[in-house]
């Protein structure tokens, strides 16, 4: 049982240290290679026009955002 508690304490200590470092540096979390931006790709899909499914999803999200904006609190 002592091994489990020690392991948990070490993991908790590492997570807290990472959180404190993130809070003080105010940097975004990024991968080790810089992600797609590192190779010059601005977005995951380099299509000139979004597909129909994405257009529908964006329209649905826009309607939902408009609906939420018009709600009386």
TrEMBL record:
Source taxon at top rank: Bacteria
InterPro entries reported in the protein's UniProt record: NqrM
PANTHER family named among the record's database cross-references: (NA+)-NQR MATURATION NQRM, EXPORTED PROTEIN
Protein name: Na(+)-translocating NADH-quinone reductase subunit E
Record lineage: Bacteria, Pseudomonadati, Pseudomonadota, Gammaproteobacteria, Vibrionales
């Amino acid at each position: 049982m002592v091994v489990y508690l020690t392991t948990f304490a070490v993991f908790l200590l590492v997570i807290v240290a990472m959180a404190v470092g993130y809070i003080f540096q105010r940097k975004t979390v990024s991968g080790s290679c810089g992600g797609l931006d590192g190779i010059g790709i601005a977005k995951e899909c380099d299509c000139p026009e979004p597909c129909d499914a994405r257009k529908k999803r964006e329209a649905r999200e826009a309607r939902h955002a408009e609906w939420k904006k018009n709600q009386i609190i």
